[in-house]
Amino acid sequence: MANLKSLAKDTAIYGLSSIVGRFLNYLLVPVYTMAMAVESGGYGVVTNIYAWVALVLVLLTCGMETGFFRFANKSGEEPMRVYSTTLLAVGTGAAAFLALGLGFLPYIAGWLGYGEHPWYVGMMMIVVAMDAVQSIPFAYLRYKQRPLKFAALKLLFIFLNIALNLIYYVGMDGDDVGYAFLFNLVCTSTVMLCMVPELRGFPYVLDRALLRRMLRYCLPLLVLGLAGILNQVADKIIFPYVYPDKAGAVVQLGIYGAASKIAMIMAMLTQAFRYAYEPFVFGKSRDKDNRQVYAQAMKFFIIFTLLAFLAVMFYLDILKYLIGRDYWEGLRVVPIVMMAEIFMGVYFNLSFWYKLIDETRWGAWFSLAGCVVLVAVNVLLVPRYGYMACAWGGFAGYGVAMLLSYFVGQRRYPIRYDLKSIGGYVLLAAVLYAAGEYLPIENMVLRMVWRTVLLLLFVAYVVKRDLPLAHIPVVNRFFRK
């Protein structure tokens, strides 16, 4: 029992630090979009470069974070030898990347479209190299069960980054996009300094035989990681190359990136569910009735995300003030991107069938298939439809991955999902959304009241059908009297 309590506490700290951190980082969106005029394309530059950063980080870490956990806990291995080997391997790769990147910086920056501002790219090369190295000490902190330092360092970066951005973009009324990258570099360097205790006090040994075994284990994870990250960032990387107006590409990408951030509320809610669901699934894997439990969990996840979808769409007239007024034309992508996020969440929940039977290769195939669809939609349709094609590309890509995982999973590890009930909720949400979106009510207050009534109707249906008040903790006390 003591071990379970410790696990629950650590999970809460890791989860809250990531979710709260992501929410606080989200607050930079209004800062950037209000400081950077849409015609400057500044936020488009931020969107594009951070997409590249996410992709390169996956390549540099190469799944070695997971490999460290696997081999540090393996019988017969010396944990500190595994740690030093992992650090040296990732550190060497990061150093080689940085040397080559900075050595050829003018050419790389020109190829990316930032020939006039090569140090935008140069600063983020330094950042991503340090991030790759830091991923291993962060894994070590988790291995040593030190969640407080883990969370403190994560939040230090975010609070310091927000403070510096507020001082420059709000306090000093600045608008230079380069400072966004500079502040990231300062914050990442600060965290690196705080990690010095985790980088010393032990002999650095590169065990080549161990490294070969780790790479054999990690390379399939790299394929899965690349497919996963490409599904998230490929549209933002591809867009400048396929959009016909090269000068206007960063402007359009900035509008898409800013509007999509509103839809990322769904991603934060999905992540919150994920932190609770993942340990729950593996904890239930030995129970005889686990498949029925998974089916119930899937239904409640979909209910949860549909409620979030309706809440965001019904109050979009308020939420749109999170981004600059000049970016509002992109708000039409919000429902599409939110549906794509729902598909991704369902795909995540479906993914446990191949994890539980140790056939993770299926995840790579499904993710790659989704990525191919996303890229194809972007390449073929962005030249004609602009950033709307990006939104539909994500919708199609995640939709394909979700459907493949479902149909193959029903053959390999069948679970009787309550499709009739789920379909009913989807239909109800669609009807309520149409009623709230397309009924013309000019007065904003009356429109908000009408949409609130519709949202409460959905909640009432959930309570009546699947979540009776008498079954809810605390509330049920009133029904016992």
TrEMBL record:
Membrane-topology descriptor: Multi-pass membrane protein
UniProt keyword list: Cell membrane, Membrane, Transmembrane, Transmembrane helix
InterPro entries registered for this protein in UniProt: Poly_Biosynth_Transport
Origin: domain of life: Bacteria
Keyword Hydrolase: no
Transmembrane residue ranges: 12-29, 49-71, 83-107, 119-141, 153-171, 177-196, 217-234, 254-277, 298-318, 330-350, 362-380, 386-409, 421-439, 445-463
Subcellular location: Cell membrane
GO cellular component entries: plasma membrane
Designated name of the protein: Lipopolysaccharide biosynthesis protein
Source organism: Candidatus Bacteroides pullicola
The organism's taxonomic lineage, starting at the top: Bacteria, Pseudomonadati, Bacteroidota, Bacteroidia, Bacteroidales
